[in-house]
Design goal:
The complex is a heterodimer of chains A (279) and B (370). By secondary structure, chain A is mainly α. Classes of the chains: A mainly alpha (279), B alpha+beta (370). At the A-B interface, helix 7 and helix 8 of A face strand 6 and helix 4 of B.
Chain lengths: 279, 370
């Protein structure tokens, strides 16, 4: 049983590395949460010893002190991100399936073009896109924002789901075809349920990417459709720099992706549906 | 029920030719076996018949009607996949019910239930109905896959190695069961296998497929006793047929097979070929015998000297490999005949020349007719 002992020895070291990594990656989170609980006076002068206060949250949410645009921006973020994910799913799921199962003229080129949206920096297209949006009347609208954000999410959906579809043996759909189902019914009844974990994972990922995007809403919106990522800038302008307010806004802005991640987690367990097919 | 016909089917994947001019028909109610090694194009043939693969050239007909461009859904065929292709999200019952609940069939729930019970009882999987298919053994999955085919009426059944993953005992009983089922309801069946015993025992007719080409089509008796060429001859029997290289000579006006080193000479009268051609002599292991003692040799038998090379005792029978000159021959004899022999013993091998086949290696291994 020396092999087992050796494994265990390596386990301790691996655990240690993991703990260090965990602390390191947790540090910024701790820092932001702490900052969001500090008063103006303490925000730049203290580290972990301070008197916690919820004033920053009150200020950001506008509780007891006039109005706040934060919730509106929050809602705008939600609408834009969810919209982009939905558009990407409606178009991307069939596209990914087609890309996985059929070879048609230009299919590889099309997929590559789609992927190139991801590795071309957004800054390259942002100025022409801004001009176009101004002229088309899409500037500072939800439709415009969703359209822009799906450029970020669509490639993710198509490329990730494509590999999920490719992992499924075509025999399943073929069996359904012979069992008397149309191509569409075969897809909905046999294939789609099996890629559900993939769809869940890609939804989460796409949502996070859309939610966190800064540069697109920064240049393509001004007030109406402005998102929460951009709105934090307001706390840094003018005659005072309120890092503690930015932090409070950021902490709250993390919640939706976090909640979604917790909710979707159980669908992320893959493998459960695979195995009924001889490989 | 329907007759299924494939005419001149050619199927290529890129530069690979999977099927080359495959032509055969499965008659109404017939049980037709396609036999071939893996990679011969058996599954491709089934997929072309089912409409899941489009032939590059050729026509598929069902009851004389060209269905080459008809969607698989509308061909009314049932297929058992080699990969089982069970729906992993469903349990056994729902897998079997899937074709019955399809929009094309819409069988009422009560009849569906009855039908499934009948079939699963027959296949011995009725105790597994509530089990997710992911929790079944391979043998059980294979029976569910077979059940999903048999559960519904169809114009024809397409079965891709449906017994390959059952253990030996179960396979034998399922083979008998399948034969009973097919004899009973007489559904046209195209059955693909690499197991010649399955083919011989189940089929009304057998098509031997090799490297995308159909080498011979015939009844089990025909493909066994009149193989078209060496490929077909080697496809049946275990140990495989002995093939000895040599040539045809004219000895005293009678055509005679002479092995390359001259150690084996066999007159084969009536052979329709000419002296001087290269030839291969084919003798099945069970047509050979070992001579014990003297004086008990029937006049119809030929004999020649050999030396024991390998002895394998397999229960009541013994597989013996003997050396005749440079050639090795396998034979199967009853245990008591081989007992007492040791390696390198000089023995006399007997056989009936009527059971010998002569093939022409320069003519694609074609068998010479007598």
């Amino acid at each position: 049983m020396s092999g087992k002992a050796g494994l265990r020895g390596r386990g301790v070291l691996a655990d240690l590395v993991l703990v260090v990594y965990f602390l390191l990656s947790l540090a910024p989170v701790v820092f932001i949460v702490a900052l969001s609980l500090k008063s103006n006076a303490e925000q730049t002068s203290t580290y972990l010893r301070f008197t916690p206060t919820l004033d920053n949250y009150r200020a950001v949410l506008g509780i007891g002190a006039g109005e706040s645009a934060y919730l509106r921006f929050f809602l705008a973020s939600l609408i834009c991100a969810v919209g982009a994910v939905l558009v990407s799913l409606v178009i991307g799921v069939p596209a990914a399936y087609a890309a996985a199962r059929f070879r048609f003229r230009g299919s590889e080129g099309l997929l590559f073009t789609l992927l190139s949206f991801r590795f071309a920096p957004e800054l390259v297209v942002i100025i022409p896109l801004g001009v176009l949006y101004q002229q088309l009347g899409l500037y500072d609208t939800y439709v415009g924002m969703i359209w822009a954000l799906q450029l970020v999410t669509m490639p993710l959906v198509v490329w990730i789901l494509r590999s999920f579809f490719q992992d499924l043996p075509p025999d399943l759909e073929q069996a359904a075809l012979l069992d008397g189902y149309s191509r569409r019914q075969a897809f909905v009844k046999t294939v789609l349920p099996l890629v559900r974990p993939g769809v869940a994972a890609v939804c989460l990922l796409a949502f996070i990417f859309a939610w966190n995007n800064f540069i697109l809403p920064f240049t393509l919106t001004s007030s109406e459709a402005q998102t929460v990522t951009v709105s934090s800038l307001a706390f840094l302008g003018g005659n005072q720099v309120r890092f503690n307010l930015v932090a409070a806004g950021a902490v709250m802005a993390v919640l939706p992706p976090l909640v979604l991640a917790l909710f979707i987690q159980r669908y992320l367990v893959r493998g459960l549906s695979f195995g009924a097919v001889k490989s | 029920m329907a007759a299924l016909e494939l005419a001149g089917i050619r199927k290529t994947y890129g530069r690979t030719v999977a099927l080359d001019e495959a032509t055969f028909d499965v008659r109404d109610g017939e049980f037709f076996c396609l036999l071939g090694p893996s990679g011969a194009g058996k599954t491709t043939t089934l997929k072309v018949a089912a409409g899941l693969a489009e032939p590059s050239v050729g026509v598929v007909r069902l009851d004389g009607v060209d269905v080459t461009d008809v969607e698989p859904t509308r061909r009314d065929l049932a297929m058992c996949f080699e990969s089982y292709a069970l729906y992993p999200q469903h349990n056994v019952f729902d897998n079997l019910a899937f074709p019955l609940r399809s929009p094309r069939r819409r069988m009422p729930a009560e009849r569906t239930r009855q039908r499934i019970l009948d079939i699963t009882t027959l296949l011995g999987i009725d105790h597994l109905l509530d089990r997710p298919v992911t929790q079944l053994s391979n043998g059980q999955r294979q029976r569910v896959a077979l059940g999903r085919v048999l559960v519904r009426p169809a114009s024809a059944y397409l079965l891709d190695e449906p017994l390959s993953h059952l253990d030996a005992r179960l396979r034998a009983s399922m083979r008998a069961e399948l034969k009973a089922i097919s004899g009973e309801d007489g559904t046209t069946t195209l059955y693909v296998t690499h197991d010649y015993v399955e083919a011989l025992s189940l089929a009304d007719r057998i098509g031997v497929l090799d490297a995308g080409r159909i080498r011979q089509i015939g009844t089990p008796r025909e493909v066994w006793s009149e193989p078209a060429d060496t490929v077909v001859a080697r496809s049946f029997g275990k140990p495989a047929i002995n093939l000895v290289d040599g040539a045809i000579a004219a000895a005293g006006g009678v055509l005679t097979f002479v092995s390359t080193d001259g150690a084996l000479r066999l007159p084969v009268p009536g052979l329709r070929t000419s002296p001087g051609v290269r030839a291969q002599l084919g003798i099945r292991p069970r047509d050979l015998g070992l001579l014990r003692g003297a004086g008990d040799l029937p006049s119809s038998l030929v004999c020649f000297d050999a030396a024991i090379y390998v002895l394998e005792h397999l229960g009541r029978q013994t597989e013996v490999t003997v050396r005749v000159g440079a050639a090795l021959l396998s034979l199967v004899v009853p245990r008591e005949v081989a007992d007492g022999h040791v390696l390198d013993d000089k023995v006399v091998v007997t056989f009936d020349p009527a059971a010998a086949h002569v093939f022409l290696p320069d003519d694609g291994g074609r068998r010479v007719v007598r």
